[in-house]
Amino acid sequence: MEIRQLEALVGIADHGTFSNAAEVLGTVQSNISNRIARLEDELGTELVNRSTGMLTESGEIVVDRARRILGELSAIAADVSELNADIRGQVVLGMIGTAGRWIVPLLLDALRTTYPQIALRIIEGSNSVIEPQLVHGRLDLAVLAWPVDAPELTSVELFSEDLVVIVDKNHALAKLDGPVSFATLAEYELLLPLGGTPIRREIDDASRAQGIELMPLIELDGLRTIASLTFDGHGPSILPATMLSSHLRDNFVAVHIDTIAKRRAVLTSRRFGFPAAPVRAIHALLLDVVKNAKNVPDGVYLPDGPAQ
């Protein structure tokens, strides 16, 4: 079994076709085909269905192992560079959108100063998109909303944020004094996160504790889309407070909700295996820049207390 055979199979898994894998790996399609054929011969099983181009069940198993092997090979060079105080390599970081808008600028500023040789790639999405990619090795680290379900992952708390009703300032909910109750929210159709997602579980747990079922106008697994619908006039939504940017506050308000827990964001990594030096460096750097952040958005709280 050769490393380039494993690279070919991962290339097909990530890029969809033999020709795309060849382009990414800097070779020709016939070489990719030969490498996969030899690997299949050695393992005695089909790894890629030639009629559909999809990985077989055996192929999926081999790809999961191959990602770990290739990751360890990459880590060798990165760890050696660490001995020379010159940490270099690539780190792929997943991040929920509400965290990215204020954390990424802090991280990039610190990265330029501290680890200029680390190439950082950031993939944005929801927990349902990011979490499986982290489990299967496509991502090195991720900032996710708590709870994180996969037992293969471990997390450390990064920050928490208020869940609020974002609504047009002329809406009846915007004119209430003090936090709004779930009994009042139940009178309105709301734009809500998709059922089963971490943020929706927080909302449902709080409302059902009071015997209240909210009325969703629509449910979406995408907080940016929900916010856009609210800002386009389709109705109030329940979202993290950071979704209401400062330039929108002339026309929209964030109404606090009575008796609802704050949304927790965590820095998550794989539980097993020893991460490469660049991954360890970004993990520590991310914790540091958040802990020492000065200009934290309204409604965000750091682990040691309310943001200042």
The helicity comes to: 40-55%
The assembly state of the depicted protein chains is single chain
Strand order of the largest sheet: 2-1-3-10-4-11-12
Distance between the termini: 56 Å
Biggest sheet details: 7 strands, mixed
Structural class call reads: alpha/beta
Low-confidence stretches: none
Question: What is the CATH topology assignment of the largest domain?
Answer: D-Maltodextrin-Binding Protein, domain 2
Structure summary, number of beta strands: 12
Key descriptive features of the protein:
D-Maltodextrin-Binding Protein, domain 2; 12 strands; single chain; 3-stranded antiparallel β-sheet; Arc Repressor Mutant, subunit A; 3 domains; elongated; alpha/beta; 7-stranded mixed β-sheet
Element layout with pairings:
Layout: H1 3-15, H2 18-25, H3 29-43, H4 57-83, E1 89-95, H5 97-114, E2 118-124, H6 127-135, E3 141-145, E4 153-161, E5 163-168, H7 182-185, E6 189-193, H8 198-208, E7 215-220, H9 223-231, E8 237-240, E9 252-256, E10 263-270, H10 277-291, E11 300-302, E12 305-306
Parallel strand pairs: 1-2, 1-3, 6-7
Antiparallel strand pairs: 3-10, 4-10, 4-11, 5-8, 5-9, 11-12
Helix pairs in contact: 1-2, 1-3, 1-4, 2-3, 5-10
Structure description:
This protein is α/β, with parallel strands linked by helices and 308 residues long. It has three domains: 3-77, Winged helix-like DNA-binding domain superfamily/Winged helix DNA-binding domain (Arc Repressor Mutant, subunit A); 90-160 and 264-306, 3-Layer(aba) Sandwich (D-Maltodextrin-Binding Protein, domain 2), CATH 3.40.190; 163-261, 3-Layer(aba) Sandwich (D-Maltodextrin-Binding Protein, domain 2), CATH 3.40.190.290. Helices cover 42% and strands 22% of the residues. It has ten helices and twelve strands. It has a seven-stranded mixed sheet, with helices on both faces. Strands 8-5-9 form a three-stranded antiparallel sheet, with helices on one face. It has a two-stranded parallel sheet with strand order 6-7. Helix 1 packs across helix 2 and helix 2 packs across helix 3 (29-43). The chain is elongated and about 70 Å long.
